[in-house]
Design goal:
Helix content is about 45%, strand content about 15%. The protein is an alpha+beta fold and about 290 residues long. The two termini are about 20 Å apart.
Length: about 290
């Protein structure tokens, strides 16, 4: 259940003295559009579960896993009878590791891990979530440490699979798959750091050493979104941080995050977050 919701913003109430929250949920209740700063991992263990993520309808079968990245607006509809694990860990302290940060960036806004799409790792990922659920319920000594160890193993197996599958999407590039993965990780890291600057597709394609057409195609394969949508997602994520400080005006935030005008910033913010920058700021401070 959502315990604290202000507008679209859910404040995740972590288990006391921890940075984790987990439900072994069997409630017949729907969750309205919302987003949160924590990553969310959901796996039905009985019956299906219906989710709309960033405007996409997703049907989760038993054993399917969805990873919803921070800031992704989603709604959830439950069947009359069913059960699912809903796991919300705070990954903030893990993101000092560049590989974790990069994986969350390229998974954004969400990915669905199924036996068909991830045949090499799905079973292992499913087992890890069941183990996390069991550790959480037992609540023994160092349970939070054990859970984060399992979470890192979970993210590692997803990330390694991402390397191999994305690298092999184009069979003609099979032998250069790992090299290209590293290249696009570098590009994504660069965009994360420089997203507030005036970035062009031509400039970044040239930086990668690829033609604009080839870079655009491979970048969308790698991130699941177009180049400019990815850049705007990073700009809005950066804007959220600035908006949390009431000393920053909305206009200053817009200009400091790479938007040419206040109107373009407001339009893009509402498109991605479902609310205006001012509404976001008000909801953030009301939830404090």
């Amino acid at each position: 259940m959502i315990e604290t919701l202000n507008g679209l913003v859910e404040t995740v109430n972590f288990k006391q003295s921890t940075s984790i929250k987990l439900y072994d949920n069997d409630k017949y209740e729907d969750y309205p559009p919302h987003w949160h700063a924590a990553i969310e991992i959901i796996m039905p263990t009985m019956n299906q579960y219906y989710i709309n993520c960033a405007g996409d309808d997703v049907v989760l079968r038993e054993g399917d896993i969805i990873i919803i990245c921070p800031g992704c607006i989603h709604t959830i509809k439950a069947p009359e009878v069913g059960k699912r694990i809903i796991f919300q860990p705070d990954t903030t302290e893990l993101r000092f590791m560049s590989e974790v940060e990069s994986l969350i960036n390229i998974m954004s806004p969400y990915i669905v891990v199924t036996s068909e799409a991830y045949p090499e790792v799905h079973s292992h990922a499913r087992s890890l979530l069941l183990e996390i659920n069991d550790i959480y319920k037992k609540n023994g000594p160092f349970s939070e440490v054990d859970i984060f160890c399992k979470l890192l193993e979970f993210l590692s197996c997803i990330g390694k699979n991402y390397v191999s599958t994305r690298g092999n999407m184009d069979s003609s590039e099979h032998t250069r798959g790992d090299e290209y993965f590293e290249k696009f990780i570098e590009i994504c890291d660069y965009l994360q750091e420089h997203c507030s600057e005036d970035l062009s597709l031509d400039e970044i394609a040239d930086m990668s050493g690829f033609s604009k057409f080839y870079f655009s195609r491979r970048f969308k394969q790698f991130t699941n979104v177009s180049f400019y949508k990815y850049v705007n997602q990073k700009r809005i994520a950066k804007a959220e941080t600035f908006l949390m400080d009431p000393r920053n005006s909305v206009t200053d935030v817009a200009l400091n995050c790479g938007f040419p005008s206040l109107s373009s910033f407001i339009r893009m913010f509402k498109l991605i977050k479902g609310c205006t920058p001012t509404e976001f700021r008000n909801m953030y401070w009301c939830s404090r």
